[in-house]
Amino acid sequence: xxxxxxxxxxxxxxxGSKGIPGKNIKLLGGKPLVAYTIExxxxxxxxxxxxxxxxxxxxxxxxxEYGAEVPFMRPQELAEDKTPHLPVMHHAIAEMEKRxxxxxxxxxxxxxxxxxxxxxxxxxxxxxxxxxxxDSAVSICEVESSAHxxxxxxxxxxxxxxxxxxxPEGARRQxxxxxxxxxxxxxxxxxxxxxxxxxxxxxxxxGHIVPADRSIDIDTPxxxxxxxxxxxxxxxxxxxM
Length: 241
Known about the structure:
single chain, alpha/beta, 2 domains, two-stranded antiparallel sheet, 29% helix, 21% strand
């Protein structure tokens, strides 16, 4: 029998959002934003331990109500506006391994600001990571044609140049090669990549494609309005959200 991998899922939900006050527990479709992430992650057949890392007691209370453990409060120095994920995850892994007396094999970052992930998104991303032996795996979605990297330009001394890739003159939308971006729904990686190498992605990254109509990363009030529309549309399509 194959050994069961020990996988820690960490919902990163700090307080103090300035763009949308109380964002992580603001009601979306009748329930707190963070609840969508908890409900999907709890259904995963791969995630063995699910916690929330937060500095906010109100967020911690909601997370516990929806079934996520909050075994510690995140230190304030790891909950600033510009705090990156790496030290937050390092702290969460170290705390949980000390408390449980185990060493995890893999870890997953779940951002509450991407509420429409499904359990299939989670498990297929983790499956790719485990089966390929990659350093990390991320969910990705197709970039809409208006934001295609060939269309991105830079301005130097009044002249327009390609930002990174030449755009063939007169190219039609349908002529552009398919491009993808991280969807922000699932970030999974080897535990040792964070704890030993001090990295989040590593050299070998694999991707699992998810639909663009479920991909959003809420940052601004306009993003929130778009999310409300997306939720209504997804429910019409039969998604249980």
